[in-house]
Amino acid sequence: IISEKGGDIEVNGVFFGNAPSTVQLPAGTHTITVKRTGYAPWVRTVTVVPGNVTLKVEFEGVLVRTSRRR
Asked: What is the pLDDT of residue 10?
């Protein structure tokens, strides 16, 4: 999983590590989520078959705004 901005990787809702990273998964359908503060989560459902696959994460627009109260 490649992400220029880094991020936390979750597989099927369970934290797996930080991007960029190599993730080995058993065959079957998995939901991959990459989260980074300030961005909408990147979520894809993939069906894993034997072999290597590269997923490139590109975050879309800023999601979170911070405000300071005085």
From this structure: 94
| Separation of alpha carbons 69 and 45, rounded Å | 39
| Pair of tokens at residue 54 | 């590269």
User: Whats the size of the chain, residue-wise?
Assistant: 70
What pLDDT, in 10s, does the model give residues 5-20? Answer: 788 999 999 999 998 8
Q: How far is 55 from 67, CA to CA, in rounded Å?
A: 33
Is residue 21 classed as helix, strand or coil in its secondary structure?
A: coil
CB of 30 within 8 A of CB of 5?
no
Phi, psi for 47 (deg, rounded to 5): -105, 120
**Backbone phi and psi for residue 19, each to the nearest 5 degrees, phi listed first:** -85, 145
